[in-house]
Structures are given as C-alpha cells and as structure tokens.
Amino acid sequence: MQKIIWSACFVTAILLGSSTQASTSQTASPRLAPSTLPAQQLTGVMDDRTEQVHPVDPKLEARPVLSLIASVPGFADWQAAEVKPVRNLHDREARTNAVLWEVQAGSQMIGYLVTSPDGQHLYEFSTRPVPELPPHLQAQAAANGYLYGGPALQLAYVNGEQGAELVNLLTGEMLPDGELLDRVPDTVPVAQKTAGSPRVLPLPTTAHAQDDAFYATGLYGKAQLGDADTGVQPLQEFAKQADYRQPTMIVYDAIPDKLYITLSLSKAIHLGADTTFLAVHDPFALNAEQSQPIYIDSRFPVTAVPVRL
Question: Which of 61, 141, 150, 287 is least buried, going by the fewest C-beta atoms within 10 A?
C-alpha cells in the first residue's frame, strides 16, 4: 500500500495491487446508510444540479442552536449574534442533507454552523470562515452542487476541464473521482443542554500529528479487514467515556480506497447526558485558519481510532 498526503483535512490512500477494501463496517458505523453514485454518472448529476436553484427555506430558524453554542467556553458572544442561511448542502444523489449558516456579530462574520435540513439539529460549528470555493473556481460552480459528506467535509461540484470535478471547500483542492459515502447521521436527537456549565475535558494529544494520522488510518484499515484488536470504536461510544486516557483520531473513508478523512481530537464538551461535541483539528493544516478547531456532534457515524502515545 502506498499512501500519499493530498493536503490539509484529509489523507488519500491509493491502493496499488491490493484487494484491501475500506467499505463501511457494521461495528464502526452502525447507523450509516451510505448514498453513492458511480463516477461515470457525474455528467447526469451536473445536469440535474444546474437546472434550478434550490434556496434555503425562508421559514427555517436556527437561532435556538445559538443558545446551545453560546454555553460553550469561548462562544459567549454567539448568544446575541445573528445567523443567516448560506445554502443547502446535499448528498451525492442531490438530496438536501444539511444547511450551512453564517454567524454574524454586527456586520462581521464570526463563524459558521451546519444543521440538519430542518435547522433543528446541530451537526458542527466553528469560528472559521464560511467554507467557499477559491475565487478562481466560483464561476464554474454548479448552483446546487454543494455537498456535505460528513464531519469537517464540505465539497462542491465545478465544471472542470475533464467535466464534473469535486473540490474540498476547506482546502481548495480537487478530489479523486469515486463513490462519495454519506457520513451524515440519518437522525440526530435535538441537542439538549442540562443545567449548569458544560463539562469540558481536554483529550490527550501527541507531538506527531501527521505521523499519527497515517498510523490511525492504518489501524482503521485493519479494523475494516476484521482485526478486533485495534481499539477502533464508533465515535458515539468513544464520546461516552468518563475518562480519556489515550490520544485518539477520527478516521473515515469518504471515497472508498481513495479518500480517507483523518482528524485529530483535542477536547470533549459534554452539554448533557446524550449531547457531546468534540473539537477536531486538521493534522495537515497549512496555515492558522486551517488549524482552527471545528466542533462536531459525537453522533456522526464515523470511527474513533486510538494512536500511540
């Protein structure tokens, strides 16, 4: 197996002469219902996405989730902030699976959040800028071609020289063709905050995040092949732990055999009995903006992979 770093926020593994598969395991992702589309059907998808714009329903209201986020240390100013819809996000089959919102204080953007299509369920939030295509690609974007593939993974279709191409909005890089899996939960209960302050727990980290990202990806592959001694477990189960003793990363295959998302974990924020958000970081960040944490709901159907100290 030859591994190549594509860039920040993800690791691409190209399998040469190998029968190893990175398909979803029942143990790692018990609630996952992947939606995929063969690469040869991309032209039809682009036609569908450019026929008519599907704006966010103006009746949607995401303000209740701001109160939840405002209880997180460092986000108190979100309580009085304004939240405005940016766009619908979709799965590979053009079904709306999330909504992207911009958070503003006055006229200044202070972050973004992603919710379920009805605006009631919070998937992720961050003080990073709203993910957008690089300026030189914006004119080539498909109107309804913005996708949400899973935690910290927003994509967009553009009309490239070779036809329809996918771009990672967090890195600006072109992605390999393949069957994009839908790593968004089918159903997530509305996040509930209990009385009192959130319980914030720092997670163990290592000084070699990039090396550990490859190590974790390897363990994930072994677990997919049936190795029961890797320590890999569903992220939701990991988040329920009372004590976090070992450095851990999130790993999931976004495009089987081609694209693996690998994220470092630095903090667990327990807002209630069944509500935990995790701070994730890009182990291959190229600049300060890409190094900023993204806070994700722990109920995403992805895996937590322990790494060496």
Answer: 287
Confidence check: pLDDT of 15 > 50: no
Residue 23 forms part of a structural domain = yes
Query: 199, 178, 177, 151: which is closest to 32 by C-alpha?
Result: 151
DSSP conformation letters of 134-146:
-GGGGGGEEEEEE
The C-alpha atoms of residue 247 and residue 92 are separated, in whole angstroms, by: 33
Q: For the chain, what is the mean pLDDT?
A: 81
Which of the 8 DSSP states describes residue 191? P
Query: In one letter, which amino acid is 180?
Result: L
Instruction: Dig out the tokens for 122 from the structure.
Output: 């919070």
**pTM as predicted:** 0.83
- Asked if the structure places residue 138 within a domain, the reply is no
**Alpha carbons 183 and 123: distance in angstroms, whole number:** 11
Cβ atoms of 278 and 269 closer than 8 Å: yes
Task: Answer whether residue 111 is part of any domain.
Answer: no
Q: Provide DSSP, 75-106.
A: -GGGTT-EEEEEEEEE-TTS-EEEEEEEEEET
pLDDT of residue 54: 76
Q: Is residue 276 part of a domain?
A: yes
HSE toward the beta carbon, residue 304, CA cutoff 13 A: 23
- Name the strand (E) or helix (H) holding 147: strand 141-150
DSSP 8-state secondary structure symbol assigned to residue 119:
S
For the cut 70, the answer to whether the pLDDT of residue 117 exceeds it is yes
By three-state DSSP, how is residue 110 classified?
strand
Rg, Å, the chain Cα set? 19
**Structural domain boundaries enclosing 196:** 2-30+189-306
DSSP class of residue 149 equals E
β-bridge partners, 87 = 100
